[in-house]
Amino acid sequence: MWHDTGTHAGVLPAGNPIQPGTHAESPETKRRFKNLLEVSGLYEQLLQIAPRPATDEEILRVHTPDYIDRLKAESASPRGGDGGMLTPFGPGSYEIAALSAGGVIAAVDAVLDGKADNAYALVRPPGHHAEPDMGMGFCLLANAAIAGRHALEARGLERIAYVDWDVHHGNGTQKVFWEDPQALTISIHQDRNFPPDSGFMSDIGGGAGEGYNINVPLPAGSGVGAYEATFERVVLPALRAFKPDLIFVPSGFDAGAHDPLGRMMMHGEGYRSLTNKLLTVADELCDGRIVMSHEGGYNAPTVPFFGLAVMEALSGIKTEVEDPFMPLFSGMGGQELQPHQEQLISEAERLIERL
Ligand SMILES: [Zn+2]
């Protein structure tokens, strides 16, 4: 919560002709997610996994030395710095980012060591936009990719898969594993939201990794029906074909209805449903091993309920809390799969044949 993104108007820095206030990526959604876990009584029933900072060696499996040196120098300055496109940070943010990446590593170790069946790393700053040589979209270090490299190189796994349901394209994860057949990277995102001109279905990986990157750029306005169909027809068959030893979920809740940085209509029961589908396939393939790492989600009142639904599904514990947004969101027009979304999903189905 100490990672300081500064005073901005949404994502715009001070100096633009609009009054600056809280940056779009602030502690609020994350803090309230944790608060709701506590209020619901779920938090005290969960195993707490202490994060630790990722080491330089772990971070350098993904990032370039020049980029890390620059981040460290700017983080040591009283003014802070900027990781890259739209990624401002304050003093000390490098150390916090190392803790964020290390939190996902600790979650991986807890699951691989059998201490937890699955894990959710509620970490900040997020990671899925960060590329090897630059930060991007509020992400300094590629948390889930760093943890994935740890799983492959330090823990000896043979295959890992990513199912990124953040509303924005998981460009960083795609780039890190572009030529790597050991990692299946799947991103379900809003078509050309962020980064601009990224996340096309034709981007399938390169070299030895060709065929191991799947992008499903859903049209703006997609609801729970489109997401469930994408999972049933693309994500689950792809996972069954690839047979990962561990499934990562870069988990942004910005595909939720009312999110300021997305234009989708997911709701709490939708996230619960997607989580249950992943749990079923994870039980079949890899002893239920799923590690989720927190990414985006910018509407402070709704994100906690999406998160609680996911945590209830992961833990198998249903709390007494009723999601007060469900009547509002489930009744929105277009929640069912629409013909133009169906067409896109049919095209994406063909990508599985390459696996
Ligand atoms: Zn996002």
Biggest sheet character: 6 strands, parallel
Mind telling me which CATH architecture this is? 3-Layer(aba) Sandwich
Distance between the termini: 40 Å
Number of strands: 13
Radius of gyration: 19 Å
The rough form would be described as globular
Mean pLDDT: 97
The SS-based structural class is alpha/beta
GO molecular function: histone deacetylase activity
InterPro entries: HDACs, His_deacetylse_dom, His_deacetylse_dom_sf, Ureohydrolase_dom_sf
Pfam families: Hist_deacetyl
Family: Belongs to the histone deacetylase family.
Question: What does this molecule look like?
Answer:
The structure is a single chain. It contains eleven helices and 13 strands. By secondary structure, the chain is α/β, with parallel strands linked by helices. It has a single domain, classed as Arginase, Chain A, CATH 3.40.800. The chain has a six-stranded parallel sheet, with helices on both faces. Helix 7 runs parallel beside helix 8 and helix 7 runs parallel beside helix 11. The longest helix is centred in the first third of the chain and has 20 residues. The radius of gyration is 19 Å and the shape is globular. The N and C termini lie far apart (40 Å). The model has no long low-confidence stretch (mean pLDDT 97). The site of zinc ion has 7 residues, from loops. It comes from Emcibacter nanhaiensis. Pfam families: Hist_deacetyl. InterPro entries: HDACs (IPR000286), His_deacetylse_dom (IPR023801), His_deacetylse_dom_sf (IPR037138), Ureohydrolase_dom_sf (IPR023696). GO terms for molecular function: histone deacetylase activity. Belongs to the histone deacetylase family.
